[in-house]
Write a structure and sequence with these properties.
The complex is a heterodimer of chains A (259) and B (251). Helix content of chain A is 75%, strand content 0%. Chain A has 259 residues and is an all-alpha fold. Chain B has 6 helices and 5 strands, in the order H-H-H-H-E-H-E-E-H-E-E. Classes of the chains: A mainly alpha (259), B alpha+beta (251).
């Protein structure tokens, strides 16, 4: 096998590639083993979708590092001649836009029915604002998009706060031990991911130019948090095979959940 | 330290600060959850104990009523029958002695029927519809007033606690109507509207001003009792226009 390919996909970012590949395999095996009724349940298919989607765009990102010509031609297509080595166009769309929407949907799936509408409004608003900023050129697709990231991150923090408010007020949550709820760990780590990467993501280009070593070090936080998040999502998919570990979620619906 | 180093420190410390803030937030949420969970448990225990107390009170009231009824029956009915039997059996005529034996048999069956009332097992064997029918028959048999009973649905088998409360509440309403309202007619209806099952008790008696709290706080008691089983009560009345009571049963 091509050494450059191995380097791009496995050895260049071992902390990023290997845990994600392992989690993807475990997630896929457990998802395939789930009964049909659970596969169609949003509490299982959405974590699996996020897992697959993350695996897909991260590996696509690695491919762009392997195939420099392809990356350069995409950058040129978008009008980026200054930074041909950047693959931010991929991570802007996949991670910061679609990823944010997927995490908002994940938060929505755990909220009590009366609060779901707030997340719907946030998603609509996010799509409108992100499209406006991107298509008007205020935040080009090929450069860092701090405003879009900040809006998305704040919406996720507000969504998580809605979950925690429900947790301390709703009688059904008051009956449970939050430390034994997968939704609690999902929300906690989603919130931590967006908080800890907030500053470094907003100041990505500055760090890249002023102190690339520190920039790369701060990006490690992002990688570690992403792995923890994917780990929790994998655990969610595998939870039916771990009886007694977790309590049943208060708003768990055993069949299809209406959107 | 140059400005760029300053900015890098700001980035590092802001990240650490936000991380710390979020950790504090999550830990605080877990603590608040634990605290509220404990408060909630205490509140539930209190509601449970109040519910048990209300049920106990109701059972005591029903038993008290039953004992009064048994005492009256022993004195007015069985006592009389036994005296009659004694007279018949004391007679030398064989036909009188035969009548005495028959009277004794009647006493035995009366005592059997009465003994069934002494515990609350009859509550389980009786439906609410049958209970209402019995109560209305008793009222009619005294010649106090006319009664009618209509039910478009069967309430079916209710849990014992719900049944006990409903029996006591219906008894209280009917007693109040007889004691205070002097109606010419009492109408009882049972129907279902959507998921809500309702028992309506209507009389055309004196009525009363619902805005004035009664000394015995009977209305408050009715409401509280219905609430202990998850139901509700609504009372409509005015002086001279009778009283209309709706008992809304728990779903």
């Amino acid at each position: 096998m091509d050494n450059k390919l191995i380097e791009a996909f496995f050895t260049a970012y071992p902390l990023d590639s290997i845990p994600m590949d392992v989690l993807m395999i475990i997630g896929l095996i457990y998802f395939l083993k789930l009964p049909k009724e659970k596969k169609t349940n949003i509490h299982f298919w959405l974590p699996f979708l996020i897992l697959i989607f993350t695996f897909f765009y991260e590996n696509f990102g690695k491919y762009t590092n392997y195939n420099y010509e392809f990356k350069k031609s995409v950058n040129e297509y978008f009008g980026n001649f200054k930074y041909p080595k950047f693959n931010l166009w991929l991570f802007n769309v996949a991670k910061r836009q679609v990823g944010t929407i997927l995490y908002l949907l994940l938060i929505k799936s755990w909220l009590e029915p009366s609060k779901k509408k707030y997340i719907n409004w946030m998603i609509y608003l996010f799509i409108i604002v992100a499209s406006f900023l991107q298509f008007t050129g205020i935040e080009p697709i090929y450069l860092n998009q701090p405003i879009i990231f900040a809006i998305g991150a704040n919406m996720i923090l507000i969504g998580s706060a809605l979950y925690f408010t429900g947790m301390i007020t709703h009688p059904q949550y008051l009956d449970k031990n939050p430390l034994k709820l997968l939704s609690f760990w999902q929300m906690t780590f989603v919130m931590f991911t967006f908080t800890l990467t907030y500053i470094s993501s907003v100041s990505l280009i500055y760090l890249y130019e002023a102190d690339p070593v520190l920039g790369a070090a701060l990006q490690q936080i992002d990688i570690v948090m992403k792995n923890i998040n994917l780990g929790i999502l994998t655990l969610t998919i595998a939870s039916p095979f771990l009886p007694g570990f977790f309590e049943e979620e208060p708003f768990y619906v055993s069949h299809k959940t209406p959107a | 330290m140059n400005p760029s180093e300053d900015q890098i420190y700001v980035i590092i410390f802001s990240t650490l600060f936000l991380g710390g803030l979020m950790s504090t937030f999550v830990v605080a949420m877990v603590f608040i959850h634990r605290q509220r969970q404990a408060q909630n448990k205490q509140k539930l225990d209190q509601i449970k104990s109040e519910h048990e107390k209300t049920l106990l009170n109701i059972e005591n009231e029903i038993q008290q009523d039953t004992l009064t009824h048994v005492g009256r029956e022993l004195h007015d009915n069985i006592g009389q029958l036994l005296s009659l039997a004694k007279l018949y059996l004391g007679s030398s005529k064989p036909e009188k002695q035969q009548e005495g034996k028959e009277t004794i048999n009647q006493v035995i069956s009366e005592v059997r029927a009465l003994s069934k009332n002494l515990n609350l097992d009859w509550v389980e064997s009786l439906t609410i519809e049958e209970f209402i029918e019995q109560q209305l028959q008793k009222i009619e048999s005294t010649g106090f007033c006319k009664t009618t009973f209509e039910h478009s649905i069967e309430l079916g088998e209710l849990p014992k606690d719900q049944k006990l409360v409903l029996i006591r509440v219906i008894q209280e309403i009917l007693n109040n109507a007889m004691k205070h309202a002097s109606p010419e007619e009492i109408k009882v209806k049972i129907w279902k509207d959507g998921a809500t099952r309702t028992i309506q008790i209507k009389d055309n008696g004196k009525g009363f001003d619902t805005s004035i709290e009664s000394s015995g706080s009977g209305m408050y008691n009715l409401k509280k009792r219905m609430e202990t089983i998850g139901g509700d009560v609504s009372i409509t009345s005015s002086i001279g226009n009778g009283t209309l009571i709706h008992l809304l049963l728990p779903n």
